[in-house]
C-alpha cells in the first residue's frame, strides 16, 4: 500500500510503498521557542502571547534529485499540561519529501524519530538508502525547531530558568509533538507507522506507553531503552563498560601503531602547562578530554577508520630544526568538530536525563568511571606503557570546564544532574498489554544500547518481534542501505513469519 513517512526531530516522510523507493519524506525539526519563554512573568507572557500564530503553515513544493520536498511549520505548546492559551508556544519544523510525481497521491505516513538527544535529522539531498523507505524529522530544540544552541540559550538569564525550560525537551513532549502533528496531517487523524533510531527508539517506546492509539506499527533500531523505575543511567553505564573496553581492544588490534601514538599524545598533554593545550575555540584539550573521541570513534561502522586517520595528523611537522613538538591545529580543530558540543549542546545537557523517572542522575557516568579508573585513567596507562582506553557515550561534569561552548551552562548542568522530579517516560502496564505490531533490531555488539538491557525491555513489550544481529553496529540503519528497515518490515508484513 502507498505510504507517507514522517520523521521526528521532526522529520517526516511520505512514501507510496514501504518496499519501493517512491517515498514521501516529511522532516521536522526539534521544538523551537516561538513566543514567550517559560521563564517570563505572567504579564510578559500575556504581552507576548497576544500574537497567536496559526497552528500549521505549509510551504510550496521544491526539489532535490528524485525527491519533491515541502516544509511545514507547526506551532505547539511548550508545556502540554497547560491550556493552549496559557502555555508559551514553540515552533516545530517538518520537511515532507516524496518521490517525484507522487506529490498529489494520498499515502500513509511513517514518522522517523532521530537519535540524540539534541541532534536534528540530516537534510535530504537525494533519494537513497533507508530514506527511500521512510521520512525523517528534527525534534524540538534542534534544526529549525527553535534550536537550543549555545547562543540562543544565553537569552535565558539564570541557570534555574534554563533548567525549567529544558525539562520540556524530553521524550514525553517529543511524543506530544508527534501526536499534535499526526492529528493535523493524517487524514481523519488516523494512526501512522514510526521508525525510531537509538534515542528515537526510546521515544518510540514512550509513544507505545502513552499514545498507542496513534500507532499502526513501530520499528526500533538500536533503540530499546531501559525502562526501570528511578534513574537507570548508572545501570546503563555499568553495563556498557565491558563493551567500551572490547571496542578499544578491537581498535588497537586493527591499528596497533596507534597505541604508541595515543600514549605520546596523552603524555604531551599531561606535561603541558595546566595539564592540557588550548583548543581553537578557547577550551582546553586534556588527557581525559582526548578520551571523548571514543564516543563516535568506537561505536559506529567507520569510526575506527576515521579515528585512525585523525591521529595520522596529530603532530605538526618539524620545519625548523630544534622546534618544539606540538599538536597540530588540524587535529585540535578536527577534535572540536568531531564532538559537536558547540553546535548541539542539548546532547550534553540532557543526555543523562533521558534515563530518569522520578530520580536524579547525579552525574552517573562520572560515578561509574571513577569505579573503573584503574582501566580508564589515561595518564596512568600512558606512564605504565599500556594502551590508553577511550570512553564511550558518557557526559562528565568536567566537560563544562574544558569545552568552551559548554562553560556558560555549567550551573544548569549541575542542577539538571540533581533534579529528581522527572515525570515518567514509560508505562510497563501498557507495554505488557501492547497491541501495536513492533519489530526491533538489537545489535549484539552495540556500545551505546547494551544488548542485555535491551532484551530485558523487549520482554516487557507484548508481541514484539526481535532481530538480534552482530552484522551491524549502532549505526546499522544508516550503514545498511535499507537492509535493516527491510528486515524489520518483513517481520511484520509476513515475509519473515514466526518459526
Protein traits:
about 500 residues, alpha+beta, Rossmann fold, 13-stranded mixed β-sheet, two-stranded antiparallel ribbon, 17 strands, AB_hydrolase_fold, Serine_prot/Carboxylest_S33, hydrolase, hydrolase activity
Main sheet: strands, sense, barrel: 13 strands, mixed
Q: How many helical elements?
A: 20
- The dominant shape is globular
Look at the structure and give the CATH class of the largest domain: Alpha Beta
Q: What is the typical, i.e. mean, pLDDT?
A: 86
Radius of gyration: 23 Å
Number of domains: 2
Sheet/helix structural class: alpha+beta
CATH-scheme architecture of the largest domain? 3-Layer(aba) Sandwich
Look at the structure and name the CATH superfamily of the largest domain: Alpha/Beta hydrolase fold, catalytic domain
Query: Between the first and last Cα atoms, what is the distance in angstroms?
Result: 26 Å
Number of E-type strands: 17
Write down the CATH topology of the largest domain: Rossmann fold
Q: Report the portion of residues in β strands.
A: 15-25%
**Sequence stretches where pLDDT stays below 50 over 5 or more residues:** 4-50
Residues in helix, %: 25-40%
